[in-house]
Structures are given as C-alpha cells and as structure tokens.
Amino acid sequence: MYKDYKGLYASLRWCALIIGLLFAADGIQAQNNNFTESPYTRFGLGRLGERTTISGHSMGGLGVGLRQGTYVNAVNPASYSAVDSMTFIFDFGASTGITWYAENGKKDNRKMGNIEYFAMLFPISKSIAMSAGVLPYSASGYQFGSVDQVEGGSVQYTRKYLGTGNLNDLYVGIGATPFKNFSIGANASFLFGRFTHSRQVIFSTEAPYNPVHLSTLYLKAAKFDFGMQYHLPLKSDRSLVIGAVYSPRVKMHSELTQIKNQVQNGVVVESETQEYIKGMDYYTLPHTLGIGFSYEKKDKLLLGADVQYSKWKGEKFYKSDCKFQDRIRVSLGGEIIPDINAVGIWPKVRYRFGLHGENSYLKVPTKGGVYQGYHIVGAVFGIGIPLNDRRSFVNVSLEYDRLIPKEGMIKENALKLTFGLTFNESWFKKLKLN
C-alpha cells in the first residue's frame, strides 16, 4: 500500500487560493458592503462580532464548549485538535438582511449584506491541528439625520450623519491534545481596519458655506486568545465538554485625521485639518473571559451554553462621544440530527437553534446629556445540508435580533439571512495494489 500525496498538493493549492481570496474579500468589503446598519454603531467600534462560523452562529453563537471535528470553531482554539487527522476543512459565509427602526412614531429601514468570514482547519499530526482565516471583530454602518432650528430665529438646518468601517481579525491558531481528554490552544491575530465618520450641517436658507466634518481612523494591533477544553466521556455515545477562553488586554496602534470642509453647492471650497494623532496610547481593547459547556449524544443531539465577560469599562477611546461599560454575553443553543444512517439527504440534515442576549459595551448620549446603555436579544434557526460525501455541508441560518433601548432611544429590529459552505477534503488518499 502506498500513500498518494495528490490530496496534500490539492489542499495546499486550496490554501493558496483561500489566502488570495482573503485579501480580495477585504478589498470588496471595504468598498461595497456593510456588516450592519445601525445609528448606534456611530459610537466606539460599532457592533461587535461573534468570532463564530455559521455552525456556531446557528446555535446562538456557541463556541467555548463546542468540540466538533466537522467545522471551524475559532472561539476556542483548543477545539482545533478535534479535527480528523486526514481532513482539511474550509469554511466560508456571507449574509444579507434588513433592519427596521422606530422613534417617536417615525419608521425607517435599511438593508445590509457582506462576506462574513473565511476560515480553514487542517491537522499537523494526530493530536495537533492548525486554523487560519479572517473574521469580523466589529463593524460600523449608519446614515441618519435630524432637523433643528437656529436658537432665537426661524432658520432651520439639517444635521446629517454618515459612517462606515470595520475592524478585521486575520488569525492563525493551533490546538493540541497533550493529555487524554484535555486540549489547549492559542490564536495569534492581526487586527486591522478603517472607520470613517461624517457630520454635515445644511441650512434651509442660502448660506455662504455648509460645514462638513470628516473623521478617518485607522487601527491595527496584535491580539492573542487562549483556550482549553476537557472532554468527559459519559457513556459509549455520550459526552460532556467543558471549556474556557481568555484574551488579554490589547493596545492598538492608531492614526486619526479630522478634517473640516466648507462646502458650497456640493463643492469643497475650503479644507482644514483640525487634528492628527498617531500612536499606541489612544485606543485599547479589554480583557475577555469566557466559559462554556456542551453535551452531546453522538450523531443525534448537541446542547450547549456559553457566558463571556469583557471588561470594557475604563478602556481608552480618544475623544469618544460615548462611555464604556462591562459587557456580558450569554448564548444557548443546540443541534439535532434525525437519523444519520437513513437513506436520503433530509434525515441527515443538521437542525440548529439558539438564543443569545447581551448588554451593550456602549453607553450612548441621550436627551438631557444622560449616557445610557441598551440590551440586544436574538433567536436563530439554521440547517446544515450534507452533500454527497456526507462530510461537506451547505449551511443556512435565519436570525432575528431585537435591540431593547432605554426611554427616548431608537428601537431596532433586524432579520439576517446567512449562507455558508463547509467543505471537507481528505489530505491523503491511499492506493491499493491489485
């Protein structure tokens, strides 16, 4: 019996292709797409991502206690070593959706859509595996305005706010099982991104100029994540996994430019750079700690729960219009497989479901100068449809999110449809001699 290395070469070609796609996707994302549409993302780093692929996302954002060898779980790098020693996994996801807003009887809606992530997972040895990919750390996208009146006069003016941007997480991770049933792992990430914000004042009467304030912020940083999992067999087909993750505090390198333009009839007639800063002392990310577990009846049922805590209070954000508070996120979810041994595809479909809730890390300014936070709750349902090889899946999920505001704040409801492909390919194929 001889080993055929064509599978290895094919996988390496896939790696080269994916790396190229990662950088191409970043360019597409920066120009044409948006992860979110929410006026609350004007503040801080916008809406924070989950660090999950579609499989974990479809279970409410589970990941800390998940240990599956059929998809990428970057939430806990200790899970990487669960992959089969002959398997290469490629995970890809994209989404589209719509958000509805309501305030003081007025309603509006915005569409959103983007390439969500790329990720891959492959074994190094029987007990060691590596993963790499690009995930969204956070995203900002908004467009709104208000009409006011000049104090002591009858002249009206319109304030327009427009912004977009995202912070990307390009990571490489390794996971290992040094002892029976005990796994550890680590991710090394390069965070990079750009945020642009615009404030414009337009007067209802003829005015010499209409001022436009532009702010452009570039961020980059090195970030590390550490994880562990303990796998406890209960019966021949049942098991319990307990996991924990930790991310240290991060100082980000920043470059901020603030410009004031004077615009007349849509043409910039005067431009002035009001401020420029560059350095490591202006923006930081918090310590994050998470714990979770999952209970599995093999090829039948999976249930799990996660709790993650991020110490945002006291973190730095230069001349922020908001305040930070500590964030807690809770995820509950599971997966059901009706009959994995049945004939046909549909009994083998993986039905996923989940709930999640969190308090915002932001406290935003409201009327009267009071800073208030909000909560986000959501429910998600998804399916994983196996392809002919029974190892690869087409994944679809539908998520409903509701932002619960304090009095006087904008209400938000959102629907998000995510599509994903989990592709499994063998590293080696064995040839038999006749």
Please describe the structure with a list of short key phrases separated by commas or semicolons.
434 residues, mainly beta, 14-stranded antiparallel β-barrel, three-stranded antiparallel beta sheet, 62% strand, disordered N terminus, disordered C terminus
List the helices and strands and how they pair.
Elements: E1 2-4, H1 6-32, E2 47-48, H2 54-57, E3 87-103, E4 106-123, E5 128-149, E6 156-179, E7 182-203, E8 210-235, E9 238-247, E10 250-264, E11 267-285, E12 288-297, E13 301-310, E14 323-324, E15 327-336, E16 350-359, E17 362-365, E18 371-372, E19 375-386, E20 393-404, E21 411-426, E22 429-431
Antiparallel strand pairs: 1-22, 2-5, 3-4, 3-21, 4-5, 5-6, 6-7, 7-8, 8-9, 8-10, 9-12, 10-11, 12-13, 13-15, 14-17, 15-16, 16-19, 17-18, 19-20, 20-21
Organism: Porphyromonas gingivalis F0570
Protein name: Outer membrane protein transport protein, Ompp1/FadL/TodX family
Structure write-up:
The chain is mostly beta strands and 434 residues long. It has a single domain, classed as Porin (Beta Barrel), CATH 2.40.160. 7% of the residues lie in helices and 62% in strands. It has 2 helices and 22 strands. The strands form 3 sheets. The chain has a 14-stranded antiparallel β-barrel. A hairpin with a 2-residue loop joins strand 6 and strand 7. The radius of gyration is 24 Å and the shape is elongated. The N terminus and C terminus are likely disordered. It comes from Porphyromonas gingivalis F0570.
